[in-house]
Design goal:
The protein is α+β, with helices and mostly antiparallel strands. The protein is built from four helices and ten strands; from the N terminus they run βααααβββββββββ.
């Protein structure tokens, strides 16, 4: 079987120095040197820059700091880690599936051994139905029936939305939720077709992106 390559976090939760280096590397490569390859990131450059800068500041304040400084550093680390885990990595893997060369240009580490028994299984999309709110659609998932993979972790679901089947035109993260019944895209234009895909994330990493499904609000 051919190797599959994925952008990954590659930094343990207690490696604050490694997290800082990763944030700076992503900022330099994805948002600066190779920005043309990543035209519509799920988190803007100013927002990501703020997360990196805040973490660097609180990390520097740890020298001789007390409980308050530690709490601030930990909060800033969580914010930066979540941005990388839930917005940067999914975007890179969506844009360049199994493309190691371009994945590396994001500044993220790349792995061909994603621990398949720990990473969530690829989701299968059932259909798209009208949401409960005006101009919204809800994507429904098929149930996982495979006995080979257990899902002990609480999963976070990422709903991607685009205007084309390739997932490149107006790509956005429409929804982040821990409830698989709440995969809802809002603010849609009536009678316009949208394409949706879903990934599941746990502590081990992100699942393979689902196949895309088309839907329109009417």
């Amino acid at each position: 079987m051919a190797k599959q390559f994925y952008a990954v976090m590659g930094v343990s939760t207690d490696d604050f120095s490694g997290l800082e280096d990763l944030g700076v590397n992503i900022l330099n490569k994805m948002y600066d040197v190779n920005a043309a390859l990543f035209p519509s990131p799920l988190i803007s450059k100013p927002a990501f820059t703020t997360l990196v800068t805040d973490f660097q500041t609180s990390q520097a304040a740890m020298k001789g700091g007390g409980d308050l400084e530690t709490a601030t550093r930990n909060n800033d680390a969580t914010a930066l880690r979540n941005a990388i885990k839930l917005k940067v990595i999914p975007y890179v893997n969506q844009l360049f599936p199994n493309d190691k060369e371009n994945q590396l240009k994001s500044g993220c580490p790349v792995s061909s051994d994603p621990q398949p028994h720990d990473i969530p299984e690829k989701r299968s999309l059932k259909d798209v139905v009208k949401g409960t709110e005006v101009n919204s659609l809800r994507v429904r998932l098929n149930k996982i029936t495979s006995p080979l993979k257990k899902q002990p972790d609480k999963l976070t679901y990422l709903l991607f939305q685009s205007d084309d089947e390739a997932g490149t035109v107006n790509l956005k993260l429409a929804c982040v939720t821990t409830n698989s019944n709440k995969l809802i895209a809002k603010g849609l234009t009536a009678l316009q077709y949208y394409f949706f895909a879903v990934a599941a994330v746990n502590a081990a990493g992100q699942s393979e992106l689902s196949s895309r499904i088309k839907g329109a609000y009417s």
